[in-house]
Amino acid sequence: MSDTILYAMEVTLNGLMAGVLYALVALGFVLIFKASGIFNYAQGVMALFAALTLVGIQNGQIPFSHLINAMFGTQLHHFGWKVPAVLAILLTALVMVGLAILVERYVLKHLVNQEPIILFMATIGLAYFMEGFGDVMWGADIKKLDVGIPQGMSETVDQLTYNLFGYGFFIDTLDIVAAVVAVILVVTLTLFSQYSKQGRALRAVADDHQAALSVGISLRFIWVLTWSIAGFVALVAGIMWGSKSGVQFSLSLIALKALPVLMLGGFTSIPGAIVGGLIIGVGEKLFEFFIGPMIGGATENWFAYVLALLFLVFRPQGLFGDRIIERV
Amino acid sequence: MKVRFATLVAAAIATGMPAFAQELFFPSMVYRTGPFAASGIPLADGYADYFTMLNERDGGIGGVKIKLTECETSYNTEKGVECYEGFKGQKPLLIQPNSTGIAYQLIPKVEADGLTMLTPGLGRTSVKNGAVFRNTFNFPSNYWDGASIIIKHLLAENGDDLKGKKITLLYHNSAYGKEPIRTLEELSKKHGFEFNTLPVDSPGQEQKSQWLQIRRDRPDFVIMWGWGVMNSAAIQEAANVRYPMENIYGSWWSGSENDVRPAGDGANGYKSLNMHGANGDYPIFADVAKYVKDAGKAAGAGDQIGSIMYLRGVYEGALAHLAVLKAQADNNTKEVTPAMMRDALEGMEVTEEIMAGLGLPNFAPPFKATCENHGGDGYALIQQWDAKAGKWSAITDWIQSDLEVIDPLVKADSEAYAKEAGITPKC
After folding, report:
1. Residue A326, in any domain of the structure
2. Could you list the residue ranges that cross the membrane (chain A) (predicted)?
């Protein structure tokens, strides 16, 4: 097999893995958009906030210590203990549920029946608030995140592909773990949505707020539930991205990677987020690898959007999105 | 003059001077928020703590208190220009934009407004030509010096022969990241190495394609001109693809603790440039502790003291300090104006004796600025990260850039700018 084909195969595999990571971020957007029609601008910041909280809890960091020290002249920084990763993840998930309750109580409740653009703008405000709040709560320094996920070249893939093709492919073990986690997450969310009482209520609200309310479904509960699940998805995305390059404030910018995925996969489809992520991941990596060097490189950011736009020409609702039919 | 200036510095530090009614106004363009805050906070803290120390210990500079006002740019060029427009009416003594993007925007503005700007190790390289860029300075070293210093180091390490070697530049796809390309192209012609470039779009969190290309092409050395998350992501990816860490050389904006810590042990051996020392234990820190941290007057949480970016902030403060001292001495007045600062910077000579007097021995390269040379003599060093010890160590002495290559490039670029902007070079 020629070297070019082997490289193309390696790049494709890595693109698939990168696509899974994009899909993890896109999933959070889809969940909230499906249930409430809100495009949650704060999803990227939620991933950052979740990752900051996780590292803070894990390291026994005292929240708001910088603020406390500045106000009272103390020298508080850490409680002096370390929390095991699993417990820290559970505690962070609880914090994200608390955040969902606060968002519903202090933001969404007051905006019922408002235009989607108002709700969208509220999430922009929420994003800025949470970014600042996360900074005050946990500090802005870059934190190493270690929840025990292995990282580095997968020996198994390397050996297997070497035996098959005489060239060992590089795949990051972290990406393989992320792919497995994403599959589990999607299956769980699909089962929850299809077979649980709350899941069906969630779908009912997504279909028609008024009709759902008329049969006794609590809109407030559903919103809290949706934002909690989106918070959990944000936590998973924060763990994966934070493990790659440390937890730092640029983590919130991963939302930019999710937008073309949403445009391509559709804003209302969980499988769409996954398939969209994979197409974007593979497409941008192959384009960068083969065409990038001819046109100066750094094509990934814009190519993802161009690819999404091309799809939109033929399917404006995205690959899996609901077709919008307005009858007059 | 050198002795007089050094004596004045020592006397000012030792005795302080009587208080004076006027204040020395310095704006500080900071990025304590946003994606680059992790680097911006220690940089801003170092600058602020240095001035606080001067105010508390010496009653300011020459007895005149310093007024430092921070303006948040979030490392965003538009916000940086807004900051400048906001404070320019207060006649700031020295502007340090701490961003290449902002520096590019401010170059024509400071010329027009008669203000003075210092961009140590950042901004537009060709401002070194003071005959064209009258009000902007970039000593002690610039990006082109940095690129050349890495090549000189590689030459020294490889028996003065880089013929046939492959060197790849992995760069932030921005004005900053593109700066060293021209120099490296010239140097590749001169020394016969094969030179390739790999851009990374901002912010640079995802670099899989670039590192797969590096894995495929196996360059002998990778030079990295990164910033923010791009640095830590690149170092992690390099560790993942098992590229030898000791063969990667970062710029001085790719060489802080923030860049290497997320990769843990994988970052061990990574090298970068630095335009100042990496030792966090300089004598000045006794005074910073006494007058600033212990007095509860630290700019931030007081937990950044001694880090690379904090040291850079201190260095920027020290350069401003020395310029005020010279302006006061040259004009025999304590009331310093931006024009006096410009003249002081233009005649500045910083020696080891002067830096030691500030409590920063063996910290920064000596340099001499002139009307024609606003960029110093082009010295920097190479430092290496020891993951186990968790610290940077200098592995070379100060290395001077290849001025035979750099100076003609500076001349060509600055003259092109002068032609475009309708400036008649003069000294």
Report:
1. no
2. 12-33, 45-64, 84-104, 116-134, 164-192, 221-241, 261-282, 289-314
Domain ranges (residues) in chain B: 2-141+278-377, 143-274+382-403
Contact residues, B window 268-297, toward A, CB-based 8 Å cutoff = 296
Residue A328 located in a structural domain = no
| Assigned CATH for B2-141+278-377 | 3.40.50.2300
A78-133 pLDDT per residue, tens: 998 999 999 999 999 999 999 999 999 999 888 877 888 998 999 999 999 999 99
Work out the minimum CA distance from B138 to partner chain A, whole angstroms. Answer: 28
Q: From CA B42, how far away is CA B32, in angstroms rounded?
A: 9
Q: Which residues of A293-308 are buried (b: 16+ CB within 10 A; e: fewer)?
A: eeeebbbbbebbbebb
Q: Is residue A281 included in any domain, yes or no?
A: yes
What is the structure's pLDDT at B354?
A: 97
CATH number of the domain at A147, please: 1.10.3470
- Provide φ and ψ at B299, rounded to 5°: -65, -40
Q: How many domains does chain A have?
A: 1
Contact of A36 with A118, CB cutoff 8 Å: no
Q: What is the ipTM of this complex?
A: 0.87
Q: How far is B7 from chain A (nearest CA, A)?
A: 38
Classify domain B143-274+382-403 by CATH architecture.
3-Layer(aba) Sandwich (3.40)
Q: Tell me which chain B residue has its CA closest to the CA of residue A282.
A: B209
Which pTM value belongs to this model? Answer: 0.89
d(CA B50, CA B59) in angstroms, rounded, equals 13
Cis ω before B338 (30° cut-off from 0) = no
Residue ranges making up the domain that contains A29: 3-314
Interval B3-50: pLDDT, tens: 455 555 555 544 444 444 589 999 999 999 888 888 999 999 999 999
Residue A320 lies in a domain: no
Q: Given CB atoms, is B306 within the 8 Å cutoff of chain A?
A: no
